[in-house]
Structures are given as structure tokens and as C-alpha cells.
Please model this.
Amino acid sequence: MDLHKSTYTALIADAQQNNRQTLAALLIRHGYQILYANNGEQAVELFKQASPDIIFMALSMPLMDGYQATRLIKQHSEHHFTPVIFLAPGHDDALLQQCIDAGADDFLFEPYEPVLLSGKLATLQRLSALNRKMQGMVSLIHREQEIAEQVFNRAVQKDNIKNPHIKSIIRPASTFSGDMILSEYSPSRDIHFFIGDFTGHGLTSALGAMPVSEVFRAMTAKGFTPQEIMLGIHKKLRQFLPVGMFLCAQLVVISRNLDHVTIFNAGMPDLLIVDGRNHQIKHHVKSNSLPLGIIDNINTDEIAQTLPLQQHDKLVIYSDGLTEAWSETGEEFGHDRLQAAIQRARRGEIFEQILSQLETFCGDRSHADDVTLLEINCVPELLPALHHSDSDHARKSHTRSRGEWELTFILKQKRLKETNPVPIIINQIMEMEDIESDRQALFTVMTELYVNALDHGVLALDSSVKSDAKGFSSYYRERELRLAQLDHGRVSFHLSIRQQNDTRNLRIRVEDSGKGFDYHRLPAPESLDPGRLMGRGLQLVRQLSDSITHLDKGNIIEVVYGWNTA
Amino acid sequence: MTISSTVSENGKQVTIAISGKFDFQLYDEFRAAYSANPASGVQYVVDLKGTEYLDSSALGMLLLLREHAGGEVSSVRVLNPSVDVKKVLDVANFGKLFDIN
Model:
């Protein structure tokens, strides 16, 4: 019913002629057009065809009675409110209750009193108008959520890493949650994940997710450190989020050697590191920071948590919607059930086990909050394929020689902590040489060389400490400490390009101010155990480049990286 | 009433008590509970004694109150959270922004 409509239609379903006439006369006076039905079946049929604004229903009629007809009509008017008024013969409580159970909206008692009827009509008209307005708003919200979901999927999630060792689900409470899981490889082959849960749902979250994913992808692709990326996202959020809206988030960076993981947990539940062999939970990585976007400055160095990893470890990441999911009896799923599910799971089926336990636990209840679950299996297949571009047809695209050049870049003292020289140098090389397809390999080489020079040269850290998992954490603590106090030392890069016939060679010479080491005692490359926690960096460089030479007292390393220009 | 707001006799303290579920449905009511009071010179207290549950939009509302009370220089007190409610406040590290006990 529309308040501003000029004519309304009423359907009167009653087998008794004289009753119909009396009621019709009253309704016509209120400007109604009248449709008549002799039985329940006809009433349902007319309702479907003519969608009347109001229905008057007798209790007993041939073929189908008023109760049954009303039930069918109410089933059909899910999105549209059509009041049904029962024509009750008397005030029999049991009878009236039956009418209410069938879906009656109101009653009219004989004899029909004109004033009472006009009061009811006015009330029901207002109710219908309100209902129509609400339905309109609900469909508008649904449409907006659909759009938000599509934009979100296209702009935010589309570029994620697709790998069978990453399992994830985002199950929304309503149409669309806005929880996000982002993944991207860094140029140095680390694997970056960003998991976010905004206050609110739907459109508001989708709005926020877009700039967050842009910052995450751009900074990861350019080789920024995890600390810088976390800070970058936080700063972006501070720019546009209104007070009261914030982002609970985790940034998870798995090292290219699969030997450690750096985690930032800002307001999300514990991240679990699970031993892949026996499903024991090795670490609960707790939130140690406010969610992002609340205060002006966060210290990302302080909240970074670095932990050792072993191959086949699993990372289990979830939103609070998982542990707070309710059962039909109002109980919470909780941490104990989650841990039990992990321990009970068969190998390789943690993700599936958690979901099936949750399903059984919740029964038919729809989820009150969004449920997000991510499992990452730390195996070498998770890493991007490693290749020097000469090994594939990409070499054909290299243009001819463009002469020779040299570049020297030196970082000193505190600048060693503040500036990551690798992206800068790689960008320089890309400006000068047409070797975009080698970017990733060169980034890896340069990163390994720089980390070696800084850690073992300038900071004089002993990598043998890393040989067991305990030493690993203390290694990273010590590294942070020494970096913070750094007031001396230098690392210099000298790059030179030489053309020899059809080959172009980039010679990278990295020298640090450290004491050097006895490189004659390095084990032969083939004797290195791939499961070891140390020494894999140089092995990687060896794989990717044409030659490696240690020079002087061991504080200089020279690597040649060549490509064909024929 | 799920939200009640009381002003102390000297007008220096405003206590907002929330009972039942503290979630987005209380948004307008919660705002109304503090916005009529002055921003400075008033100690704001949020009493969670009767709060069974608190979601992230409730955390957002607490931030709005903090902003109203002066942001960085505010000192909003949050009292009597249940064990479960306290957990939510802890995961979000809200102890850094509010005086919780």
C-alpha cells in the first residue's frame, strides 16, 4: 500500500454474499476497488494476479479455508507486505490464536463498525508504506554490497599468489565481509602476506581495503622492508580513516630460505606456528600493538617478531570470528576447540579439519561475525620459480650493447640502518640496461650480498649461532641491538658493465669494513646440506650468477652476472 | 535501557554504563551519552560491569569518546570488564589508550 496512491485494491475472500456486500460498501466509501473470491484457492490465485493492497479473509470456505490460503499468501509475499485481516465470527481465543499462527495481521468482528474499520485501514496503510520503504533500503544495501564485493575481488584479491600450499577462506557474516587476505612475492623472493579485518562490514571495509592493498603491493614489489611496509600502510590509513574506524592486521613475511618468519600482529588473534610433523603448536604469536590507523605513530621495529621456521611448518592465521563463532546453544567455538582440531587433523589437512569442526559445531546457525582462515604450508614449492633469464627465451629480447659504465655507491654508519641500498641500485641498473626480466634474480643476488656484508662484516654477527632454532631468535635480537647502536662501518658497492663480443657482463663488487673470514675453509658448494639454517644465501647467489670470488681477507666478494645480447 | 549516563554531583565526572551487548546497534545511543557533555574538564568513565560482549565497532565507539574527550591528552577510564571483554581489549592493546581496570 502506498500512502499517496489514489486507489487501493482490497480482496475480500468470503463465500457468504451478504457479508461481502456489507464490507464492500464500507471499503468503497474509502475509495477501494474490490475483488471477490469465493474460496481460498481463488483468493490465492487473485492475490498472485492482482497483488491487492489488503486482504479480508473469512475462516471457513469451500475447497480451501482461510488459514491455508493465508499461509500460502504469506509464503508468496516475502518481499512485500500485504496485510491479511481475518473476518472473525466472535472472540474465541483458540480460534483467534489459529488465525495468528496462520499469519493474520488483524481481525474484524461482526457487525463491522465503520469507525473501527477506517482506523484499521489507516494503520495498515502506514505499516505498508513503512514496509515498502524498508524493503527498498534493504535491496539498495544488497546492491551496494554486491558492487563492493565485485570491486573488492577485482581490485584487491585478484593479484594474490595462487599456490596449493596456501589455503584460505573468507566467509562473510552477511553478503560481504571486507576481511582481506593479500599475498605477494618480494623481488628478493620473500613471501609477504597481509591479513586485515576492518571495523564494520561491507562497503566501509571495501573502501578501506583498496588503498591498503595498493600500498602493500607497490611497496612489496619495490623491495621495501616489512617494517617499512607496515608503516606505509599505517600512514595511509591515518590519512583517510575517520576516528572510530581502524584495521586489525597482520603482516607476515616468510623468508626465501624458509628459515624464519617476521610477524607484525596489530590487534588480530594469535598467529599459530604449527610443527608440520606432529601438529604441535610451537608458537603463539600474540598481538603486541594497537590496530592500525588509530594513533599517529607506531614503532614497527618494536613490534616486529622474528621466529625460526622449519620446512613443513604450517602457519595458521584466523580472525576472531572463528573462535567467537557460536553454536546453537550459545557456546563459543574457542581456542581449545581450534587447537584440538589442529592436533587431531591428519597430515596436510589442518585447514579442512578446522572448517569441518566449525561446521559441526555451529550447525545451522549462520555466522554472527566474519570468519577468515588462512593456512600456509612452508615448503619450497611455496617460493616463486627461480631463474636467470638466460635459461629461457627471454634473452632474445635483450637489445644490443650500449657501451660500458661504472657505478660506486657507499653507505656509511647510521645510513646502513636507515637505507636499504638494494632497491636503489637495482633501479639504477634497470635505468641503464634493458634487462627487466632479470630484475628478480639480480634483486636476490644483491640482497644476499648486502645482508652478508652488513650482518657478518659490519655487525660481526656469527652465522653459526643460527644453526639451531633457539640461536636463531637470539641472532635476530642481537642484530636489532647492534643495528640500533651502529655508529661506524661501511659497505661499498662497485658495479661495472663490460661488453665482450655477444655477452654483457655485470660485475658486482661488494666490500665491507668488517674483519673478513677465511674463505679457503668454506665447504665445497655440493657438500652443503639444503636443510641447514645457515649458508644458504651464498648458495643462492652461486646458482643465479656466473661466478663468485672471495677476495683479500674475505671482506670483498665479486660476482659476475652476464647475459647475451646477440 | 542498555546505556545509562550519569553525571556526578559536582559535574566533573560522567559515567556511561553499558549492559548487555555492546555493538554497532548502540552507536547512536552511545554518542548521545557523551556528546551533550563538555569535552574538557570532565573525567569520562565507561562502566562495563554489565557488558556481556563487545565487538570491534564498540572499540570504535570508545575511540570516538576518546576523541571527544581530547584525543591524545584525554584520560578515559574503562571499568569492570569481564574476563572475555578484557581479552578483546587486550588483543587490541587498548590499555595503551585507556585507563582500564
Remarks:
- The first helix of chain B runs from residue 27 to 35.
- The mean pLDDT of chain B is 90.
- The interface with chain A takes residues 24, 55-57, 59-61, 63-64, 67, 72, 88, 91-94, 96-97 of chain B (CB under 8 Å).
